[in-house]
Amino acid sequence: MLLVVTKQCSHLSDNLRFDRYTIQVGAMKPIPQNLGVICLYDGAGVENFDTRQIGEYLGQWFGPDCVQIRSEFVRHHLRSHGRMDEQTLESRARDICKARIEDPANPLEKREPNPEQLVQERKWLLQGVVNREVFYDGLALQRTYLELLVGEETSLEFVHIVFTNRLIGTWDQSDRRYHARVSVYGWPSVISTTGVVEAPARPREYYFGFMAGLDERQLREELAGRFIDYGDPRLTDLLKGYTMQAVFYHLLGDPFCDNPDCRLFNAHWQEQMIRAQLGPGGEFCSKHQKLLKELADK
Ligand SMILES: [Zn+2]
Fold first, then answer.
1. Structural domain containing residue 76
2. Distance between Cα 152 and ligand 1 center (Å)
3. Can you give the CATH number for the domain in which 31 is found?
4. 83 pLDDT exceeds 70?
5. How many Å lie between the centroid of ligand 1 and the Cα of residue 62?
6. Which of 40, 64, 223, 291 fits a disulfide with 59 by CB distance 3.0 to 4.6 angstroms?
7. What spacing in Å lies between the alpha carbon of 207 and ligand 1's midpoint?
8. How many angstroms does the Cα of residue 264 sit away from the middle of ligand 1?
């Protein structure tokens, strides 16, 4: 069980000092002053998403030596520790099954996975192909990933960012249901390519047209460009900003910005997301541009 407590100092850009502690099994460690290694896990396996390009983008900011591209997270860690045996695979598949959301209107309950789901998850772990229609509790999934980190990889100098096409969500207490998310930041951070399509809301005209019985294909054509669909050629560029949010979360405990033209903007609508990530306003607001440069120069 990992609990991350963050408390932001008032003069962020003056000295980059933050009171942030990770409490893990009773130990407290201050955040490192320098960025160590950003590990990107190439597990999405979808069209038009290139983890290598994301790595090059981060390399331009932090230096290429700071970035490692790895294979899908679970397979990478099981293989690197020689644990691709039947028993371990079964155990990992079981944990991932338990993170499945059966009903978005009910919080996750402890339960034993059914045998069919278990076979499915085990197969997906081995082959890396995942059905994007299965919905997972993002925090529960993150916990199963965390258990695979051992040794020096648990050091805060490692930033682990998992790309997946699993659809992830988090429970919202205010309306008591799960909501799909693009990302869940933490240790490791999880970014979902399916979430990009499914989580931020599409333009209102889409829903009005759909409710009025208009043809969905026609609606998609009419609103082309105003939302991200599966296979969208903009996917990699768009996720560069989300990856940077994960790095900001890791380093500073705050991944977001209020400026709608900054890549750190927390978009709830597809059009907001496209504007923040790909719009004409540039990549980052002046505050975050400056902060990023300071972080990169350290
Ligand atoms: Zn900003």
1. 2-297
2. 32
3. 3.40.390.10
4. yes
5. 18
6. 64
7. 30
8. 6
Ligand 1 centroid – CA 291 distance (Å): 9
- Cα–chain-centroid distance for residue 214? 33
Cα–Cα distance between 228 and 196 in angstroms, integer? 7
The maximal CA–CA distance of the chain, rounded, in angstroms, is: 57
Give the confidence band of 123 by pLDDT, cuts at 50, 70, 90. very high
Q: Which residues, other chains included, contact 207 with Cβ-Cβ below 8 Å and sequence gap of 6+?
A: 201
Considering its fold, how many domains does the chain have in total?
1
| Distance of alpha carbon 289 from alpha carbon 287, whole angstroms | 6
What gap in Å lies between CA 210 and CA 6, rounded to an integer?
42
pLDDT of 34: 64
Please check whether residue 185 is in contact with residue 168, taking contact to mean a CB–CB distance below 8 angstroms: no
**pLDDT at residue 17 greater than cutoff 70:** no
- Compute the CA torsion angle 37, 38, 43, 47 (nearest 10 deg): -130
Ligand 1 center to residue 259 CA distance, Å?
Answer: 6
CB atoms within 10 A of CB 187: 19
Spell out the residues 6+ positions from residue 231 whose beta carbon is closer than 8 angstroms to its own. Answer: 46, 47, 48
